[in-house]
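Lab meeting, action items carried over

1. Structure of the two-component assembly. Owner: GW. Status: complete.
Input record:
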Amino acid sequence: MVNIRRKNAELNTHLDETTVLQSFLEQAYQHGLLTDVEVQNIQIQIIALLTKQLKRFTHGDSCSVKSETAQSIMLSILYTIGIYLKSLSDPDLCLNCLRQNQINNLFQEGRNIIDLQISEAKILLSAIVHDRLTFDNQAYSDTLENGIPAFFTAYDPEFAAHETPGSIDYPLSNDQMDLTGIVYIHHYLQQLYREDTFCLNFPGDDIHCLLRGYHNHSEDLLLNVFDLVFAQSIGSVLAGKPARQLNISHQDREYLQQRLTNLPDQELDLRLQHALTQVSDDLRLDDSSLALLKESMTSLAARLKNALNNGRLEEVFIALKSQSERSSFVFEDGPKLADDVFRDITEEIRQCRYIEDKLTIIRREIRSAADLADILEASCLFEDEYDSVYHSLTSLELALLIKSFPAPDPSLFIRSGHAATEEIKEWQVRLISFLDRLVPSELSTLLHLAEGITLI
Amino acid sequence: MEPFMLLPPAIINKMAVHEILECNEQTARFGLQLSASEALELVETRAHSLRSFGRLEFAGGMINKLILRFCDSPFLSCHNYASALNDLIETFYYFKNETLDEISDDELIGLMKVYFDGNCQGSLELLQNRELETLARNIRYGLTDYWNVYLDKDDQEDEEADAW
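Predicted assembly:
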């Protein structure tokens, strides 16, 4: 934050780019730093610049535009000038600049900064993509492969510099969501580069195992991998291990719980600071990375204190999970029935009076898990008939049905008892109630089986 | 956003009225002339249209273009001249929005004149509700020959002829 005190006036340039000029003029005028004539002159120049930009926007073909278009172009002008004013670290300089320079010149300077930031952002993106982390996460891949490139394609620095097209899903450890336009993208990529650079100090396999330990379906979650790796590294150092080691064992967690639980906050903060320094020394981090760790330490400290108080240290220092623990076998589904054959079968089932006959047809005709799910959904079965079907199925068949539940985690879905959401179908609601009536050990075996299946 | 008031509206209106009255020299040979109060009414219609259709004008001259383009129309006389211009101004801004700003001012004014003198035979209602509506729809549907407002009708006639 940059503040100046002059003639008892305080000017704050730590504002959004689109509002910094207006706020600056207002403050300067109120405190007598700019005269009436100077303010009016600046206003006239801004209007002239808006007119020039509108003519360029319409290619001189039109003498009027929609109010929203004019407003957006005005915001773009203010944003561009705001970027330049914010780049001058000294508000006195800003004032002199506004007094002495034409608004056109300030706008041009802002455009130059935007162009420079676009080039830098593109270089950063290619560096990140080149050295990208190998972990499997949909949001991370989408953001790097589609979201940010879409920004560069759609971004219009001339007439919509303040807008942020594209889509960014991957969350940062410290994401400044209040920024807009190229300033946001530039900041995002800088931060992501620093986070990825830090994570590259650790073996890729360990990060995979860490993510698997965090959640079985971590690839579908909006998570920040740096936060997890950083916490693990700090935990490792606190437990007397090297910073590079991400594996924190059950014994380590118990040891940490005993050592840290009753420490006063200040003492705990001090230990965390020491751990941070040791991580930095062990990994030979530069100032930029160290600054990133310091920024993230506040939230880690809060999470750690919370976890210690609740005796849930495993939420912060995660147990790694190797690949073999996750998937036990691969299931190749049988061929699906043709549409007309499937229609005939559902019609035949509908015409049956007794459930035994329906079960016989299902047993005889259905050869794939996908068809079984379709039959359950095809309005051929009514009320208690679902239970009869589920009773007749083998454990593997039930596990396959569980597997077809809405991602990311069917077991959590079932255990949480969220049976009445719009996403799930009647047969799934009935399956949940059927599973609820099972003996806990049986249910657990089924869920474990479902978890271990990889469908191809 | 606060509007910047560089010049008082009265002065802006006076300048616009003066510009409009200058056109009288060229329209007089068609027996068409505007009085100062009629010119002021046109300026007010423009301001009202801009406000009601949510548009902002950054360069003047649209009214003059409209006057000079329409002054040789056989369907304008000294009896309906001023009121027709008021309607045309309003129509112009309405269809700038409806055509999604895809066509230039000159092209829209040119097409309005062609339709007004041609198919509409001087009827403003037909111009607004039939020709320009079709033009706007053609533009929104992305047709390349959007100006041909009888495209559908021709096709329909062809189809009918084929059917017979």
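2. GW to write a short summary for the group page. Key points so far: The first strand of chain A starts at residue 3 and ends at 6. Residues 384 and 430 of chain A are 9 Å apart (CA to CA).
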